[in-house]
Amino acid sequence: MKINKKIVFPLVLIPVWFLIYHSLQPVTDWLIDTVFGMEKGKHLTEALRFFIFELPKVLMLLALIIFFVGIIRSYFTAERTRKALEGKSTFAGNVLASMLGIVTPFCSCSAIPLFLGFVESGVPLGVTFSFLIASPMINEVAVILLFGLFGWKVAAIYVVTGLVIAIVAGWVIGKLKLEHWVEDWVYKTQLGNAGESDEKLKFSDRVHFGFDAVKEIVSKVWVYVAIGIAVGAGAHGFVPEDFMAALMGKSAWYSVPLSVLIGVPLYSNAAGIIPIVSVLIEKGASLGTSLAFMMAVIGLSLPEMIILRKVLKMPLILTFIGIVATGIVIVGYLFNYLF
């Protein structure tokens, strides 16, 4: 029987991954305490310990989960997504668009072609916005990092609340009938049928697709991961807990709207912002405030707003930002109350 190397290779790598992953903490402590001989409890010591442990941990989590998500994504294409959303004009369309946004590759640079494709196919504006909100906000990088740094409960909270925001915001935009704030040339555009091939792939090809996804995504985000963890390490070692608790703690009523106002004009992706959020929570920032800040940075990306300005008039962009930001603020207050 012929052995398919594309299948066997990941089966060998996965147990090796788990062995290395579970050795990270003792290896980090050995390096810091024995090899470097640094004194425990010192600011620099604990900052360096945080960085050396978290960087490989996060990158390994990214590689593992992106591999499996890459296999799942091989079953989805932008063309299939567009076809799936055609004719959906009710609340069910917003739900479906938000769910598809999680598993469909999307970045700021593809905002315009996706928007044009959806509009040409007759996908309602509100349904389109549900997709545009969910896709960057609830991506595998965000979920993986949240799971690795906070555990499955926080990751699940993020996914559920992100979906609710995407669904409700898209539904509200649809009900407001804001099509007149889309640039006139958009409705005149004809993209033709240059869709992606629906050719069925072998599972071994999908495994190869998973490896390609790892190489492509990790190569793009590892720098952001390193910078984010470096900033987080600095905060972990040097920022006083009382300062963050006063600024972003539950007792500060203004903390949630302030965090959203700060987060909206900033630009980062999940890889860069989540390690920082991890340390903010450790230093006394509340969960709801931290989630609100993270959602504002990831979900209301400044580059995406600039790109979408080519197809949307400014009142619609401002309405979009206002509705999503309001939803994020509500989520922030809700989780500050519950946790």
The number of strands is 0
> Could you give a short account of the major beta sheet?
none
Percent helix range: over 70%
How many H/I helices?
A: 16
Write down the Rg: 22 Å
Name the poorly predicted regions: 190-198
Shape: globular
Instruction: Provide mean pLDDT, rounded.
Output: 77
The string of secondary-structure elements, in order, is HHHHHHHHHHHHHHHH
Query: Structural class per helix/strand content?
Result: mainly alpha
Query: Could you tell me how far the N terminus lies from the C terminus, measured between alpha carbons in angstroms?
Result: 56 Å
* Domain module count: 1
Q: What fraction of residues sit in β-strands?
A: under 5%
